[in-house]
């Protein structure tokens, strides 16, 4: 496929020469000429369904076959998606081995046909392959139509090019953009086997491991709308604005996880949002939000979703202050199912002996069942035979708190009330376990030098506000 600019008012002549490639040489004389065809771009676009079929010519006395063109107007979508897939229990196709699977992605055309838009690499001798991530323009995948069918074929690679068909499945970009969830686990079906075998179930499954979408597109949970906050910002603001009242300096270290960082594209699961490793602090929750939005313009979001690095990062800080003078609350907001559960359990068990709590807010439609393992309300988190000293994790899915009327303020209030409810008891459990007694209250501040009554003369609902006193020094 290739892209051409179309001008209705101009005659755009095209010539197509077809060759059989014999060598890697770019010199056409070293390849076999198969035929040629002349037309205009307008002829292709003006054909029924944008499909033009013509006979090749150019070799006297020989039939050269036909050439078929399909044309489709490209959308102005400039979004780019990065995806990674894996498979499980694919059919064995090789007699002396397993299978050498690869995926072929097809974009559906307006006339019901399909066009190849991407092929993955081949994974040799593996029925449970994990393919490398790839980046593709959304325009190439679905022409910017998020609901257009995307077909994926699974093949077993053969050296002679006669690749064995394992099965297929269909999806859409809208489904893929939902991320890692039960909705993006696909049965690989072989229609021929399904018709012949009564007990046939499938030829394996393919699962979306990760997807990162441009935050500028509305399907992204990080979408920066000019009219309302996204779910990440709502969760951060809801919890942060309450808990910041208990912080003396209002400086909050803020980290991101799951992104490729400039300039070399290195993947990080614990990077400061302000990109200052020496001082990751942000001033107030507004400063955290500002750093978050700025980082979205700088990094490329990327899976998998690893929690352990950030938990360990905060735990190192908490381990330096165990005298009861400070208590750390880590708020983690994620739209992905956790990918490093074993490492995260280990991190939680270790952190349970430190002055810290972990709040996890899940946003989006993903299935967060695995997160319940970390919320030790019923069963204490354990790792390698060790149980957490106390329950320090609170998990909630944000979708459970969204007000049906769309009232963001009410949604945020509901979320904050639930996720912060356990923090006082978790703080007390640590202090009691270490025998730390409450410190005496600080003495009151010195009496002000002068007191002057100030009056608010604004009228509200027909009545004046009462006067109050304000110190003046």
In CATH, the architecture of the largest domain is 3-Layer(aba) Sandwich
Question: Please, what is the oligomeric state?
Answer: single chain
Structural class call reads alpha+beta
Major β-sheet profile: 4 strands, antiparallel
Please give the domain count. Answer: 3
Provide the low-confidence segments as ranges: 450-473
Strand order of the largest sheet: 8-5-12-11
Strand content: 25-35%
CATH third-level topology of the largest domain = Rossmann fold
Write the layout of secondary structure elements.
Elements: E1 13-20, E2 32-40, H1 41-46, E3 51-55, E4 66-70, E5 80-88, E6 101-108, E7 114-119, E8 134-137, H2 138-142, E9 149-156, E10 164-172, H3 173-176, E11 185-187, H4 191-196, E12 205-213, H5 231-243, E13 251-253, E14 255-256, E15 259-261, E16 266-268, E17 271-272, E18 281-283, H6 284-296, E19 300-301, H7 308-318, E20 328-334, H8 341-351, E21 356-362, E22 382-383, E23 386-387, E24 393-397, H9 408-419, H10 423-433, E25 450-454, E26 459-460, E27 463-464, E28 468-472
